[in-house]
Amino acid sequence: xxxxxxxxxxxxxxxxxxxxxxxxxxxxxxxxxxxxxxxxxxxxxxxxxxxxxxxxxxxxxxxxxxxxxxxxxxxxxxxxxxxxxxxxxxxxxxxxxxxxxxxxxxxxxxxxxxxxxxxxxxxxxxxxxxxxxxxxxxxxxxxxxxxxxxxxxxxxxxxxxxxxx
Length: 165
Fold this sequence. Notes:
The protein is α+β, with helices and mostly antiparallel strands. It has a single domain (about 10-155), classed as Haem-degrading domain (Beta-Lactamase, 2-Layer Sandwich). The protein is about 45% helix and about 15% strand. A 4-stranded antiparallel β-sheet has the order 2-1-4-3. The longest helix is centred in the first third of the chain and has 17 residues, at about 25-40. It is globular and about 45 Å long.
């Protein structure tokens, strides 16, 4: 995949356009399943996690991933929860300001990682309600995979992969 590094404005634009009309348990399953499909197509050794608040709605660890990926998921997700922005955007904002998140963020780097791969789940009228996180690829590729899946999820035809609702 090997994505190029987006700047602050591009990352902010991604977040602005990826606000969802709603996000249910079924939506978490669909988004997670889409991420699994995309990762399998690319033989990506990733772990995938979707949370709404404190509740884990989806988790999958694909071949080649490890418990270390779960630890990275937790650290990146905490950044989204604290800042209400993608983990890559937070790290990019620090770098754009000539700072380093690990030293200037005043947070324990064992608990927080401003590396790409965790993206806020934002819902119209509600704001950030959760996070979708991928770990296992280089950070820009983790971020790009999440953004691609969110774009496909948002743009899918209504009723697609929705079963009998």
